[in-house]
Amino acid sequence: xxxxxxxxxxVWQGRxxxxxxxxxxxxxxIKGFQDARYKSFDSLPEAERAIDRNYWEFVTKKGEAKxxxxxxxxxxxxxxxxxxxxDAAWNTATGDMEYxxxxxxxxxxxxxxxxxxxxxxxxxEFLAIVHALAYLKNNNSTIPVYTDSRTAMAWVKKKHANTxxxxxxxxxxxxxxLQRAERWLAANKYTNKILKWETKYWGxxxxxxxRK
Length: 212
Hints:
Catalytic activity: Endonucleolytic cleavage to 5'-phosphomonoester
Binding site for Mg(2+) 1: 87, 208
EC number: 3.1.26.4
Structural class: alpha/beta
Main location: cytoplasm
Keywords: Cytoplasm, Endonuclease, Hydrolase, Magnesium, Manganese, Metal-binding, Nuclease
């Protein structure tokens, strides 16, 4: 019988962080721990390099780790930890939508809204950005907001949600929120940068709902 290949488990966030060579030891640090962050690697040098870097660099699809030696272009760099990342989730079967904002530095959820009936993902992304901007303005904060939606970024820039979604009795609340968001953009100035989350280099948006 072939010998089982040794794995090295990096725990960035758990009861105890570090590198573990035994899955049971790793599991003890992460099982039941809220927002645990960990990945397995095939060699100790990979694990040692990974633990000194940001968890989000290594996250792509569920259960898949990014190569440690991937070169990130100088113009892309690393995400700013002192920031808010936003994202939306849309259920294709029910049409329900929700959105949330996460503080990148700690992974703490700042806000969660929804589900809203009969919505779209673009609307959720748009509302999430405006929600983050309003939250930051209320807290006198100038930190940036990350989103992976170019459409939502364009809508915010134009201060108008250019949706083709039709108003229905189910999504009336959502249209009220859209109008409120557009009015907020028209009436308020902000200095916060709205930045594109570079999924290709940084992995999944930290505010992703993990339902892909």
